[in-house]
Amino acid sequence: MQVSQNVLQKRYADSVHNNHAVDINHGSRNRYVSTLSSENYLPQDVFVKSEYLQKIEGLGDSIHGGFRDAESFIAMSNILRGENILNNQDLIAANYLAKNSKEINFESFNKVLKNESLSMEMKGLITQLMNKLYNINYIHAGLMMAS
Hints:
By secondary structure, the chain is mostly helical.
């Protein structure tokens, strides 16, 4: 066990696991040549925003007051569909919620989900839509709820 740990430590120190030079003459990877010195090798974490997150952040005022009433909710849903954030199934759930919710808010949507006569498929669609809307609302610090 000690021998294998020493080998692994040496490979890590030599950065063998990260930088391999290909033996051009023989076309194999049997010789490893470190291109980094052990003093300069530090792993770095980088956060890259997904295209989906960038689209959501770019919505701005187009979602402002989207929970004001059923009409503004449907209009906001159509805008989100146009940006490819929501899909056609999400629009089905949005239309259902607009027609069957007493108010347009997450609490009212949760009450609709508790309806036992609601099909499992529709529950799934509503849950998927609500998760997307929660995320969008969170990223925009509650802009959907603003009047």
